[in-house]
Amino acid sequence: MAKQQKRTDVQPQPLIGEALLRKVKDLEHLNKEEKARECGYYTLTKNGVERVNMMKFLNALIDAEGIELDGKQLGNGRGGRSASYRISVQSNGNLLIGAAYTKQMDLEPGDEFEISLGRKHIHLRQVEPGEELEAS
Length: 136
Fold this sequence. Notes:
GO terms for molecular function: DNA-binding transcription repressor activity; transcription cis-regulatory region binding. By secondary structure, the protein is of the alpha+beta class. The chain has helices at 17-26, 32-38, 54-65, 99-104, and strands at 42-44, 50-52, 112-117, 122-127.
């Protein structure tokens, strides 16, 4: 276990975002606990003992990098396939847009779309409630 130091100085505000990323890069010669400490991710106990908070430091790094780990919680909490952004024509000639896409777009049963066909693309435009579909 790392040696705990007794400190009496005032605890700084932890760095976040770009400032955190720059500081970590500048401290590449230090180990991760020393980096966390230098970036302000520690607390002082009432006895003046310093404790490094690695979880807060690592979570701040993840946030600063823009990495989304939680994602959107899908409706009923069950897993499912993630969107691959590719589909294939089924043997019956249908194209199926899966639930991963409709959940990502917050679509509800009954939502309507206008379909425009191009040479090799399909464009969907959501029709607002009460709006009439254009006749082609």
